[in-house]
Amino acid sequence: MKDSIDFGTTKVSSLFSKLLMPTLLGMVSSALFVITDGIFVGRGLGSDALAAVNIVAPLFLINTGIGLMFGVGASVVASIHLSHGKPKTARINVTQAVIALSMLVAAFSALIVWRAPGVACLLGSSERLLAPAVEYIYGAVPFFVFSAMLSAGMFYIRLDASPRYAMMCNVVPALLNIVLDYLFIFVFHWGVIGAAVATSLGYIAGAGMVLWYMLMMGRTIKLCRVKTHLRSLRMTRRNVGYMCRLGFPSLLCEAAIATMMFAGNYVFIAYLGEDGVAAYSIACYVFPIIFMVYNAIAQSAQPILSYNYGARLTRRVSSALRMALFTALGSGVMFLLIMYFFAPDIVSLFIPAGFPANTIAVGGMPLFALGFVPFAVNIVAIGYCQSVERDAAAMFITAMRGYVLMLLCFWLMPKLCGVSGIWLAVPVAELLTCVLIFVMYLRNRK
């Protein structure tokens, strides 16, 4: 499952293709992981259960964001150390990231489970949706550490020149989740908690594959012993802090999707009630899937960018950036056309025709899809800034895109355009972010 990859000398287009295909297939498998949950819950348990799962979904995104933060941060640092001929230092950094990630996510999960009803209400749950939302939290959140480990582990395995094994770490959990969703919902009739447990078992399988690789199969990037005396602990704290700073924009990106769900749930329930939330939940299933594809493109470029940035090979850095950007733009146009022509079919996968939520979603999804193209540019730009240690720029773009502009648009667009404005809030925020990135590019070029 290992490839012969030299990030410093192999032709950039060949490197990108070699990394992109397995990464993309792995991300598509992750997308299936997400979308099958929505289809099985919507078809098997109804629109209220789908809305309840959507209420809880921001917690999953924040948890994934924590995993990506440690994955990106440690991968960038390790890539640069490898370009300087320091494989032992790279291994130590990755091990420190794995330990810190596990401790942080365990504490995060315990806090949520302890206050589950209050957390569900805080996320926007109505009385009608509270019971299934809390049930889903109890079935899924205790296993968050496995989900975060899977998200981070993909970066380390790809950096170790094993993109196909990284792909399998996503494919196996996705297939397992499909089988278990069917069994737990349609055969055993376990309801919402059955969907949660099916998801959790999939993540456990994927995290197990990651740990097995890093303990038994790793070639350069693998887990190692770390020293525990006071000086080493101080170095660990410093290293982990720097990795978190580099990877923090990835957490912000995931949390931004959580903010989009959170704000949208509040606005839709105010304008259209529970049916509006159920309709919006379909957009919230689709948007992370689009993000996974763009993220696969950015992640495929990341080790090429970081390694050649560390080696001061600027032409190769520019070539990798252009390749990632054009690939993402092409994907964005394709997704926009698919949603424009096939919105009724996509919506009917989740909620059958004839339900009020189906009608709302069919009218709104083509509007929502207008943001897919600028979203592509934004994700690649953020990934580039992270890869070349421009963490301040990455954090600024992410904060503007996912928080300032997003919340402003959710507040302003419904006032200007009514219900259509709610669907247009995210596309307008993405477009404004794209304009901001272009302005920053022109200033830097001067």
UniProtKB/TrEMBL annotation:
GO biological process: one example: response to antibiotic
Primary location group: membrane
Stored InterPro entries: MATE_fam, MATE_MepA-like, MATE_MepA_subfamily, MdtK-like
Keyword list, A-Z: Antibiotic resistance, Cell membrane, Membrane, Transmembrane, Transmembrane helix, Transport
One Pfam entry name: MatE
GO molecular function annotations of the record: antiporter activity; xenobiotic transmembrane transporter activity
Record's protein name: Multidrug export protein MepA
Species for this entry: Xylanibacter rarus
